[in-house]
Amino acid sequence: MSVKTTARVKSALFAGIATLSLSACASVPGANVAPGTPITTEEAQLGAKYHPQFVAEFGGEMTGPQATYVRQIGQNIAVQSGLSGARNDFTVTLLNSSVNNAFAVPGGYVYVTRQLVTLMNNEAELAGVLGHEVGHVAARHSAKRQAAAQRNSVLGVLGAVLTGAVLGNNPLGQQLQQGFLQGSQLLTLRYSRSQELEADALGVEYLTSAGYDPRAMGTVLQSLAAQNALDASLQGRDATIPEWASTHPDPASRVQNAFSLAQRTGVTGVTNRDTFLSRIDGMIYGDDPEQGVIEGRAFIHPELRLSFVAPEGFYMINSTRAVSVNGNGGQAQLTTAAYNGNLDSYVTQVFASLGNEQQQIRPQSVQRTSVNGLTAAVGQARVNTGQNNVDVTVFAYEFSNSQAFHFIGITPAGQSGVFSSMYQSMRRISAAEAAQVIPRRIDVITARSGDTVQSLSRRMAYDRAQETRFRVLNGMGSGDRVVAGQKYKIVIKSN
């Protein structure tokens, strides 16, 4: 959750953002355009209009040599698509996000997060991911997806993203579910399997024509699958459950398909591994302290000077708009809204923003309390979603006369207590504690004689799963060994 975002007025937490607006257009640009057709004027104008909002949703645009490098590789691979022969017609942006993600939108706008870049191990993989996303645009998948969303209703599509274990599938349930979908998720409604496979095939085609090793598409998909499994293991959840923050679920069959496509080309191109690793050396890995960091079950924001602890068995996802807390027993989210100094009305306004035209949500009462020296207020409402009853809790804290933060918690009826410990853990942190929060970064090292996976893993800035993290980060299988003289990535803590 970034400082810039929390400073905004967010009373309409669930209001439509750029992607929702795109999906709700009366006509969807590109929906009836033949695949491979050059970028149209209408697509270029649409992409330019929404580009600033997409960048803001993902923590902002990174600048400097690393961003320049990503832009150059992205533009070089994008021109292979036939959308345009001019590199400058493509805007390739490196985003300051800790989520593994990449996407492209009509008009020649291509995006990749720094977190996904740090997972890669060579330049060909970077080109492959960006080529895959450009492939979606070249095939007009986004336009077709948006047209389908328009036909099926936006809320119906969004409601299908979540499992619905807590909330029902009627409009109110979907409205509440929407609140736990950040801009990244609204933007990245999943493509169909056939569309993903088509984009993979186009990515392999672009890699081949650009002179890269086409096998890179398979290796990067393999790394994404391994990272997803690792994240699931660390968070104590089933790896087969789709991640809300991921656009690319990668079953083994898709990885093998990518390798098969590469083999059919009969081409062995370059990977530029050492060049790539030298360019990403020092890149931030994981959470940026300016947006807050997740350490185990604790969330700490050194800029906003706050911290809380998620309940046992729940995991967190940090985004620019909010911190989501997820588990089988319920869902919660920490965010903020406009505050005029009246905490009671603040809670009431948050409840009002959760309803829809058919059903307004009002708290049964708003009670004042104190949590670790912070003035707080809490309200609760029982809501019938059409399939079941849920308890909606808003727990708000005053941090100054003009700044308040609040949790929204949704649980099965009678089970709101699952988040009680979290609500009571919110606290203001000291300047000294805030100063101790430093970012993790990629450190590229050259293995020496005698180095092993175990010895290098011990240098990873984590207190658990060091070896697994090291292997996934470097694209190494369980039986792979460290080779002296070869470069590897480790994660360290460094300002």
UniProtKB/TrEMBL annotation:
<dbReference type="GO" id="GO:0046872">
    <property type="term" value="F:metal ion binding"/>
</dbReference>
<keyword id="KW-0479">Metal-binding</keyword>
<dbReference type="GO" id="GO:0016020">
    <property type="term" value="C:membrane"/>
</dbReference>
<dbReference type="InterPro" id="IPR051156">
    <property type="entry name" value="Mito/Outer_Membr_Metalloprot"/>
</dbReference>
<keyword id="KW-0482">Metalloprotease</keyword>
<dbReference type="InterPro" id="IPR001915">
    <property type="entry name" value="Peptidase_M48"/>
</dbReference>
<dbReference type="Pfam" id="PF01435">
    <property type="entry name" value="Peptidase_M48"/>
</dbReference>
<dbReference type="GO" id="GO:0051603">
    <property type="term" value="P:proteolysis involved in protein catabolic process"/>
</dbReference>
<keyword id="KW-0862">Zinc</keyword>
<protein>
    <submittedName>
        <fullName>TPR repeat-containing protein YfgC</fullName>
    </submittedName>
</protein>
<keyword id="KW-0732">Signal</keyword>
<dbReference type="GO" id="GO:0004222">
    <property type="term" value="F:metalloendopeptidase activity"/>
</dbReference>
<dbReference type="InterPro" id="IPR018392">
    <property type="entry name" value="LysM"/>
</dbReference>
<feature type="signal peptide">
    <location>
        <begin position="1"/>
        <end position="26"/>
    </location>
</feature>
<keyword id="KW-0645">Protease</keyword>
<feature type="domain" description="LysM">
    <location>
        <begin position="443"/>
        <end position="490"/>
    </location>
</feature>
<keyword id="KW-0378">Hydrolase</keyword>
